[in-house]
TrEMBL record:
HAMAP family: Acyl_carrier. It comes from the Bacteria. This is Acyl carrier protein. The modification O-(pantetheine 4'-phosphoryl)serine is found at residue 41. Pathway: Lipid metabolism; fatty acid biosynthesis. Residues 6-81 form the Carrier domain. Belongs to the acyl carrier protein (ACP) family. GO terms for molecular function: acyl binding; acyl carrier activity. It is found in: Cytoplasm. Gene3D superfamilies: ACP-like (1.10.1200.10).
Length: 82
């Protein structure tokens, strides 16, 4: 069954907290990974790998560059989940 936007956001927030050390409460739809959450490119790769495993989606490298905000990532996962 497909996850809701809220469920994806909650799970993604846990991933960002675990991988990047950002408080899950700060991971909101309008936050930029690099600007607001201070996630560098190497950490972003770790977030993507963890998200791929958690949500059973494939996020190609050329798609990662388009995921600048948390909302972008949530939308991509929601659209591409199995």
């Amino acid at each position: 069954m497909a996850l809701t936007q809220e469920e994806i956001l909650a799970d993604l927030a846990e991933i960002v907290e675990e991988v990047a050390g950002v408080d899950a409460a700060d991971v909101q739809m309008d936050k930029s990974f690099t600007g607001d959450l201070d996630v560098d490119s190497l950490t972003m790769v770790e977030v993507v790998v963890a998200a791929e495993e958690k949500f059973s989606v494939k996020i190609p490298d050329d798609a990662v560059k388009d995921l600048s905000t948390v909302g972008d990532a949530v939308g991509y996962i929601q659209k591409n989940q199995a």
